[in-house]
Design a protein that fits this description.
This protein folds into two domains: about 10-275, Alpha-Beta Barrel (TIM Barrel), CATH 3.20.20; about 280-350, Type Iii Antifreeze Protein Isoform Hplc 12. Helix content is about 35%, strand content about 15%. The protein has helices at about 15-25, 30-40, 55-60, 75-80, 90-100, 115-120, 135-145, 160-170, 195-205, 220-230, 255-275, 285-290, and strands at about 10-15, 45-50, 105-110, 125-130, 150, 175-180, 210-215, 235-240, 295, 310-315. Helix 2 packs parallel to helix 5 (about 90-100). The protein starts with 8 loop residues before the first strand and ends in a 36-residue tail after the last strand.
Length: about 350
């Protein structure tokens, strides 16, 4: 069963662009959020995504563990995230209510237990980020809310994904969307590995598959379009109003024009994909008869003559006896004179 009654379901991940747009325009975070939600809605996005967390809950201050990550100071890392930790619970609630009013699905990725609990009050679908894929206690807490889950799989093995799915299903029967993702920001095109979408579908045939995209938007939105064509029904990509904003996310964020291009691609795909089951089409009817072959007389055949292979040939159009029925012609007696190059019909033969 699909989590959203639409395919593709496109999610605009507003995330950090919310704060950078507010700074550029010198407006409040709520004004920025409402503006970006409206912009996403106006170009055809189906859902909007935010990030919910308290920095103290997700980052350790143990400086000794940061050396191998090439981060000079855990405080710098903490501060870089802390400046985006600004929206209050009530503000998230107001955003959720506004999204409901205008017909956009509100989503926010919780990154700590506290966020899970307050988002549960006004959010219908949860997202588990790639950073928490192996955080089994956290996954079970999210699953305990018994709501559909988008499970991001960046940097994961199949075994780790299966472990996460089991953790969800230990406490919930809610639907799961397994999201292909790559933990590289921005993701190079050669690292997108969209064929992994098909691999996930093969490994998890009972689940819906999605894709969280971090590549730079190409001119024709072929990355997102290909992901959809490969079977990803839920698509998520960072979203901005202005790609020129100096933001951590803007380099791989789509804007309204990109969304419109993607939507155009989807309409075109819908047109050319058509029906799945192979069968003759109405548009083929006339041409099918015109270019297929019939059994024709290759010589003059006298009435009463027994027809053999030397009497016949196979020529257009396909309005007579099909060559596939040759066994019903060979050995039959002609019940009339049949001139050379005549398209044979069964009424010309004795039963």
């Amino acid at each position: 069963m699909k989590v959203f009654n639409k395919s593709p379901f496109l999610i605009a991940d507003i995330s950090l662009n919310l704060f950078d747009f507010a700074n550029q325009e010198k407006i409040s975070l709520m004004e920025s959020a409402l503006f970006l939600i409206d912009e996403a809605k106006s170009c055809g996005v189906d859902g909007v995504m935010f990030q919910s967390y308290t920095s103290e809950n997700i980052i350790s201050r143990d400086s000794s563990i940061f050396d191998e990550l090439y981060i000079e100071s855990p405080n710098d890392y903490f501060d870089s995230l802390r400046k985006y930790d600004k929206l209050t619970v009530e503000e998230y609630r107001r955003l959720a209510e506004y999204c409901h009013e205008i017909g956009v699905v509100f989503l926010s990725t919780p990154n700590d237990f506290e966020s899970v609990d307050y988002l549960d009050e006004f959010m219908d679908v949860f997202k588990i980020s790639s950073s928490d894929l192996t955080n089994i206690p956290f996954i079970k807490h999210v699953a305990s809310k018994n709501k559909p889950i988008l499970l991001s799989t960046g940097g994961a093995t199949i075994g780790e994904i299966k472990q996460a799915v089991r953790a969800i299903e230990d406490v919930s029967i809610s639907d799961i969307v397994i999201m292909h993702s790559v933990l590289s920001f921005p993701t190079r095109y050669e690292d997108a590995n969209l064929l992994m979408i098909k691999d996930l579908a093969e490994n998890f045939p009972e689940y819906e598959i999605g894709y969280s995209d971090h590549t730079m938007p190409d001119e024709n939105m072929m990355v997102l379009t290909t992901a959809f064509n490969y079977g990803a029904s839920v698509l998520e990509k960072h979203f901005t109003f202005d790609k020129k904003i100096d933001s951590l996310d803007s380099s791989y964020a789509m804007d309204g024009d990109d969304v419109i291009n993607f939507k155009r691609n989807v309409l075109f795909l819908s047109k050319i994909n058509g029906r799945r089951n192979k069968q003759p089409l109405i548009c083929e009817s006339l041409t099918r008869k015109e270019i297929r072959k019939s059994i024709v007389s290759d010589v003059d055949i006298k009435c009463g003559e027994i027809i053999n292979e030397s009497h016949i040939a196979f020529k257009r159009p396909g309005v007579g006896i099909s060559p596939s029925d040759i066994d019903d012609v060979i050995g039959k007696k002609a019940n009339q004179d049949i001139p050379k190059d005549t398209v044979l019909k069964f009424e010309m033969l004795e039963n």
